[in-house]
Design a protein that fits this description.
The protein is an alpha/beta fold. The chain has helices at 23-31, 58-72, 88-92, 98-117, 135-154, 170-178, 207-212, 238-248, 254-269, and strands spanning 9-13, 36-40, 77-83, 123-127, 158-162, 185-187, 197-201, 218-220. It has an eight-stranded parallel beta sheet with strand order 1-2-3-4-5-6-7-8. The chain is globular. Bound molecules: zinc ion.
Length: 276
């Protein structure tokens, strides 16, 4: 295959060979012009894992790394992101106390951090529920998020957060408290009004304007790869497709493209984005 002229990075995608299209979806991304992707671990329940301690998460993470290896064989560069899903706390609290659920989530993050230390993953993932929860669950979720911020700081890695929509401005204070630079806290499915690093859905209306303002952001599909939810969010080709549309319509220069898909990615995650 001819090597691509510019990088196209999906900042948040899931590939699931069991419940979805698996490697075929990754190949779609590649054929559409994609070069690099951040493969995010799926919630434990989607793999049939019901953790009661941190080590139970290793099955989820090992599976994610195996998928990463399969995707690399297609020629794509893969950066694994491991962690817990904020909705897990609600599920766990059905079979244990909230304090225990909080402990399992934190231990799952500890487990993910060991993969970062070993160089097997580049970033952590955490957050807090994006749906209405009790004040107790909300406080417990913020405790999990604070733990994730501390772990990311300790391991000098980025943290992707999945949280309620809106700016999440209070997370800035939590990041300062944890000694992690705010630009390394990535608001997944973000909006331009966040003081955190915005990872924007590829079709976001604000992209042309943000490009003109030379604002830092990255692009994601949040493709779930679940055959039972084919229309959920957008497809695996969306980041390359929208990037190429912006380029061909003159709203993104090749220089802008390198700024978004390589330079900003490198700065946020501390990885190297190279074309092969
Ligand atoms: Zn996701």
């Amino acid at each position: 295959m001819r090597s691509p002229a510019y990088p196209i990075t999906d900042d948040h995608i899931h590939i699931d060979p069991i419940n979805g299209r698996g490697i075929e979806a990754a190949k779609d991304f590649l054929r559409a012009g994609g070069t690099h992707l951040f493969l995010v671990s799926k919630p434990s329940w989607s793999l049939g894992v019901h953790p009661s301690c941190g080590a139970d998460y290793s099955r989820v993470f090992d599976e994610t790394l195996q998928i990463a290896e399969m995707i690399r064989e297609t020629g794509l560069e893969v950066f694994p992101v491991l962690g817990v899903h904020p909705a897990e706390i609600t599920r766990f609290a059905e079979r244990m106390t909230l304090a225990e659920a909080t402990g399992v989530m934190k231990a799952g993050l500890d487990c993910a951090a060991t993969y970062v230390r070993e160089g097997k993953a580049v970033a952590l993932k955490s957050g807090r529920p994006h749906y209405e929860v009790s004040s107790e669950v909300s406080a417990a979720s913020n405790e999990v998020l604070a733990h994730a911020l501390h772990l990311a700081a300790e391991n000098s890695c980025a943290l992707q957060i999945h949280a309620e929509s809106g700016p999440c401005a209070d997370v800035v204070e939590m990041a300062v408290e944890a000694h992690i630079p705010v630009e390394r806290v990535v608001k997944h499915y973000g909006s331009p009004d966040t003081p955190l690093h915005p990872s924007l859905i590829a079709k976001h209306d604000a992209l042309p304007q943000l490009i003109r303002e030379h604002r830092r952001f990255t692009m994601e599909s949040d493709y779930m790869d679940e055959n039972s939810r084919p229309g959920a969010v957008i497809g695996p080709k969306s980041v390359p497709r929208y990037t190429n549309q912006l380029i061909s319509s003159g709203q993104m220069t090749i220089e802008d493209c390198f700024f978004i898909h390589a330079e900003t990615i490198e700065r946020v995650y501390g990885v190297t984005v190279q074309l092969r």
